[in-house]
Amino acid sequence: MTWYALLxxxxxxxxxxxxxxxxxxxxxxxxxxxxxxxxxxxPAMVLLHxxxxxxxxxxxxxxxxxxxxxxxxxxxxxxxxxxxxxxxxITTLGYQWNTRVIVIPGAPRVTGGPYRLIPHPNYxxxxxxxxxxxxxxxxxxxxxxxxxxxxxxLSTRVKVENTALAxxx
Length: 169
Known about the structure:
By secondary structure, this protein is mainly α. 69% of the residues lie in helices and 4% in strands. It has one domain.
């Protein structure tokens, strides 16, 4: 269980790093005339992702979930792959990447990296991680609840993002 707590802590630290990167990118985007869209759903997104990490640990501890190697190791591999995809997205978008939806009017739409393959690859990483991270230690309730709430939230987020990106060339 200790190693799972360390994994959750590592993901939490990674999230804090993302927030710092996002804030730097927000400042750059705003200085170039960036406009934020859909800020109303942002607090719910932050809360949901925080509850995911807490839920992973709470369910594993309180409900005495066991590590099942046949499930846990493949899920761990998916978590690692999701992190790699997320950072590929971040590096591909550069200062245009953010945890918020901020668009610089007239900026070119990014079509390289993972964006040449699918329109919203970061959300693929979020979906994969949200399902796999709890299942590393058999926290299936957290995986199901997060995935359902995340699907609802992402339906809003993708609409907001598509509307915001429609003006880019």
